[in-house]
Design a protein that fits this description.
heterodimer, A: alpha+beta, 11 helices, about 15% strand, B: alpha+beta, four-stranded antiparallel β-sheet, about 40% helix
Chain lengths: ~375, ~425
Amino acid sequence: MNFDFSDDQKQLRDQARKFLAEKCPPKAVRVVLDGKEPYDRALWKGFAEMGFLGVAIPEEYGGAGAGHLELCVIAEEVGRALAPVPFSSTVYLAAEALMLAGSDAQKQAWLPKIASGEAIGTLALFEGTGNPSPKAIKLEATNGVLNGTKKPVADGAIADLIIVAARTASTGRDSDISLFLVDAKSGGVEAKALTNLDPTRGQAELTFANCKAEPLGAPGEGWSIITQVLDRAAVLTAFEQVGGSDRALEMGRDYALDRIAFGRPIGSFQAVKHMLADMYVSATLARSNAYYGAWALSTNAPELPEAAASARISATQAFQHCGKNNIQVHGGMGFTWEFDCHMYYRRANALALGLGSLSYWEDQLIDRMRKRNAA
Amino acid sequence: MNFDDTPQEAAFRAEARAWIAANAPKQYEDELRASSLGRTALKNANILEVAKAWQKKKADAGWACLHWPKEYGGRGASPIERVIWQQEEGPFGKLSAMFIIGHGMCGPTVMAYASEEHKRQYLPPLASGEKVWCQLFSEPAGGSDVAGLRTRAEKRGDAWVINGQKIWTSGAHYSDYGILLTRTDPTVPKHKGLTMFFLDMKSPGVEVRPIKQASGHSDFNEVYFTDVVIPDSQRLGAVNDGWNVALTTLMNERMSIGAGVATGFPELFDFCSNIMLDDRPAIEDRNVRSKLANWAVKASGLKYTSMRAISALSKGERPGPENSIGKLVAGSMVQDVASYALDLQGAAGVLSGPEAEFAGRFQAMLLRAPGTRVEGGTDEIMRNIIAERVLGLPGDIRVDKDLPFNQVPTKGRA
């Protein structure tokens, strides 16, 4: 049994960590946090040069053709460094949707641009409050023309390629939904940046008015593709969350060792030690669940839907837990803008919602477990 | 990344599987499979006798204490082979419960500190289950603070005379031998005046009294020592070096991997799929699903954490510290799971006999669960261990560390 990453994959992780430590220190994250830039363009270019963007994209489409395990280790480092780039929307959502459902021409048109950093992509799914559901999709597609509004759309204001979930029928079935591909430069779509919990990753409202779009995948297959894309993104996002959890735990541990109160390092008090031990427990459970998700994703196993939901829930809980208790360990200083704790807290809570919230994934997990038990 | 055996592992697994299929006591398989925390018993047989017979059969065929050297009754197997055996043994592994302390803690301590002659004399019958061992460490005055123990050992000629009391001794009532930690010098700080022995539990002056637990069962005992004589040749390690010997024992306690800790989750999932709530299966209720999902990811997190440790063993590496979370997570989870299963039963949850829902399984689990959060290191001690050994946080301030033991205060409020 080798339920672990290979030496080459671990080396790639180390390489990514070193690269991000140099190019993406907290002060670089703060440039985007403070609203001076929508994302870190230089870092994005660096990601392309390092081959991070196309690591799971086949060579024939301009990628490195390595695989999803390699993408998982990079995602972990992206999460650890809070990289303020549109990595998840472009790589986990747009590229995965293209690889799953795109025609050869669509893959040729977009995947090389994603791998080279020329194109930012996203998935426009949500329409206001609520979790992923075919019923919630009102945006209409008629003869390849889109009308309606999507929000929130991750990195929607900077995206070149938008994959849109649209209603093509009204029978009350999943097959009412189809996917479309929109080139943001072709007109008919207007973007408005929205204020959000985590300014280091943008959110937008996109309004489509008689916007010409080309179908992605077969008509009526939209919801099935979205479900698969969300599962894949759930595993990859779990690695970002695992990376973020580990870093938040380290920050708390380091502060507990350095900060003296009542004549002792605060990390010598059991109340603080036990809080940190519990953070370690959450982070460890999340990592193990994420590894199982990675295995299922990389082998396209029938267990993927269940593994993805487990990874999603466990990693979301861990990052939220580590993010909030890191602030608690820091006390008042943790609640200042100057300390970096709140950046992890913000990212943890934003990532907890982006692919659908915990209650959605809890429901999914139980459905999928029941299906397996019945089989 | 894969879950596949190496060719050697696959060959070992096939051999183990074939032997188990041909030899295991199949007639008890269903009952053992269905048993959960607080309820391991057989309806029509004495589980101790069944367990001893199975252990002896394994030993005769070379499947007992796999990781021990052959000359001491083991198989000289690798750590990963031991894990594969446990996976294959499955529900029959529950029969090993009465040997866990002897095989997991007493045996390794004897192996590390006893004379060659004693090792050859005592270890093979321990491996084969013909002799059962217990561990006599905890005392009324020293639970988590084991080094605070007060049982005295005084040298008289070539022997030692023991007086004092032990508590929480699992299986003392059916044990043949025990390893015993005593105080030999009360005038030095507590860790420096301890000495380890092993003894025959039938020695004159040893009295075993079962403790009636909060669950109503009796798995543990008090053991009283009145002028018990132990020959000096049964000393394990140097005089006053017992703390280091005990650390060997306790380290082995935490090394067992892959045995799978009970979380209660499979039972709860099954229960929620079958019990009705508002005219539909409970598992279709929004709140039930949320609870189940949260426990599901804990159970799977533990499962894949142990897979990671097994992978390290398979590569010949030492497992990382992540394995230390198992008992901490499972202990409180099984308690919460049991409590929730009762909540779903409403007022009828109060009934606990065989006529209760699910044959009273969750009631038994609830009553046994507090013990799992205490035995083998309380939740609080486990958190200290993670904080200090994994995260590198400072140890607690120990006010009695440098004090001669006989000056350590023994009362709280006067």
